[in-house]
Write a structure and sequence with these properties.
With about 120 residues, the chain is mainly beta. It is built from one helix and five strands; from the N terminus they run βββββα.
Length: about 120
């Protein structure tokens, strides 16, 4: 997850040694996910401006390839929030990010798996 500043309490660094780590130790996490199986998830974030808190959630659905590393980055904007998935690519001795998918907070065909889960009746 990508956080602008990071939590000050109950947060600990979680890194797996993936290249291109340039985040504050508690503002991002590296985790293992199952390869070749569609993952349905949602990033939620926001920003406080004065006395008002603006928040937004971005659902995404993606199948991560085996033996590959990815970065999923949340980007908040007052009009729209996004989640971008980029694959880490190595060329000779340098690493770069190559964007492979982009999602936003609008319901559409790219996030139908998440949308189906959100529409389920909850007892709480």
């Amino acid at each position: 997850m990508r956080l602008r500043v990071g939590f000050l309490v109950n947060s600990s660094p979680r890194t797996l040694g993936i290249p291109l780590w340039n985040y504050h130790e508690n503002s991002a996490k590296e985790i293992y996910v199952e390869a070749n199986k569609r993952m349905h998830a949602m990033f939620f974030g926001g920003e406080t401006v004065g006395a008002t808190t603006y928040s937004c959630g971005t659902p995404f659905s993606f199948s991560f390839s085996e033996n590959s590393d990815y970065e999923v980055k949340f980007q908040w904007d007052p009009n729209q929030c996004r989640a971008t998935i980029s694959q880490l690519v190595r060329k000779e001795d340098s690493w770069s990010l190559s964007e492979v998918a982009r999602f936003d907070n609008r319901a559409n065909a790219s996030n139908q798996g998440c949308l189906a889960q959100f529409r389920k009746t909850r007892l709480y």
